[in-house]
Specification:
Strands 1, 2, 3, 4, 5 and 6 form a 6-stranded antiparallel beta sheet that branches. By secondary structure, this protein is mainly β. The protein is about 0% helix and about 45% strand. It has a single domain, classed as Jelly Rolls (Sandwich).
Length: about 70
Amino acid sequence: MRWEPGLDTSPSGVIRHEWVEEVYLLEGSHHDLTLDETFSAGHFAARPPGMAHGPYRTAEGCVMLEIRYRP
């Protein structure tokens, strides 16, 4: 997944879904507005179903490998 510089997912609010999600940041960075934390290339996240995350902003853009699967 590629997010262009300046992307802001705030209008969508906090994200929750019914699947397991694994994300590895390959390039760039993004900022989680709820956690007030910036994640950059090399960061890995594993989220169980229902886990709240985001919304996000990215000034420089980022490229992520995102894998989703049912538990």
